Automatic annotation (TrEMBL):
Species this protein is from: Mucilaginibacter roseus
Superkingdom to which the source organism belongs: Bacteria
Taxonomic path: Bacteria, Pseudomonadati, Bacteroidota, Sphingobacteriia, Sphingobacteriales
InterPro entries: AL/BT2_dom (IPR010496)
Pfam families: 3keto-disac_hyd
Coiled coil stretches, renumbered: none
The entry's keywords: Signal
Protein name: DUF1080 domain-containing protein
Boundaries of every 3-keto-alpha-glucoside-1,2-lyase/3-keto-2-hydroxy-glucal hydratase domain copy: 37-237
Signal peptide range in chain numbering: 1-23
Length: 242
């Protein structure tokens, strides 16, 4: 099989500079888009429709080429290299294919409020966690693993994560407070935003000091640069009725 490879040069903190590759030779899981109303959020060759969170100017830490949107270098949240959609979304179905790098960390946020008073996308936006939970250097809590509603809700036993280097397909459904996370064709969790259970998790856990976390009913979609490498493709959204 003909191989297609994107080589990415990134700086990994104190570990120095390493050359890593994101391959496109594995046949990705596909989304069966049969309903009307689906819109692509990535044209496969430019960053049109995206911009750096809370930063003006050209995006330099993400590349768009050959149908793949890749983060080309991030060290930690202090660098804040996330990108967000130009448009805001309320109720939606969002699907994407993703490929994580060894020991890397990322995520997809929604309902992100872009304002200088919020230093990071995750200050307001709930996150579908993407991470190399096998090759991560250190202990991960269950709420930090792939597919989680980060620091809030855990996946069920239907979660089947593909190995590093292979493409996974994920989906988020947000419909009037009802939220679903899907991974490789299986629904791995669901919950009701703003319910008493949700509020208890928020106020007693990681977000207890972030009063605006998860409260917006509309906001931007964010792709996180949070350490290492991540690649996305086939990013599509269908807006649902309010």
């Amino acid at each position: 099989m003909k191989l297609k490879t994107i080589t990415v040069l990134l700086t990994a903190g104190l570990l120095g500079t390493a050359v890593v590759a994101i391959s496109n030779d594995d046949k990705p899981a596909t989304v069966n888009v049969t309903k009307k109303g689906w819109v692509s959020l990535f044209d496969g060759k430019t960053l049109n429709g995206w911009h750096a969170y809370n930063k003006p100017g050209t995006v330099t830490n993400w590349t768009a080429k050959d149908g793949i949107l890749a983060c080309v270098g991030s060290e930690h949240e202090s660098t804040n290299g996330d990108i967000v959609t130009d448009k805001e979304y309320g109720n939606f179905e969002l699907t994407w294919d993703w490929q994580i790098g060894k020991g890397s960390n990322s995520g997809v946020m929604y309902h992100v409020v872009e304002d200088a008073k919020y230093p990071y996308t995750f200050t307001t936006g709930p996150e579908y966690q993407l991470i190399d939970e096998v090759g991560w250097d250190g202990k991960l809590e269950d709420w930090q693993k792939a597919g989680c509603d980060y620091a809030m809700h855990l996946p069920n036993d239907k979660k089947k994560l593909k190995p590093v280097g292979e493409w996974n397909t994920s989906k988020i459904v947000f419909n009037k407070g009802h939220v679903e996370h899907w991974l490789n064709g299986a629904k791995i969790l669901e919950f009701e935003a703003w319910s008493p259970e949700w509020s208890k998790k928020k106020t007693t856990g990681k977000w207890k000091d972030d009063p605006d976390y998860g409260m917006a009913k509309k906001g931007r979609i964010a792709l996180q640069a949070h350490g290492g490498k991540i690649a996305f493709k086939n990013i599509k959204i269908m807006e649902l009725a309010d």
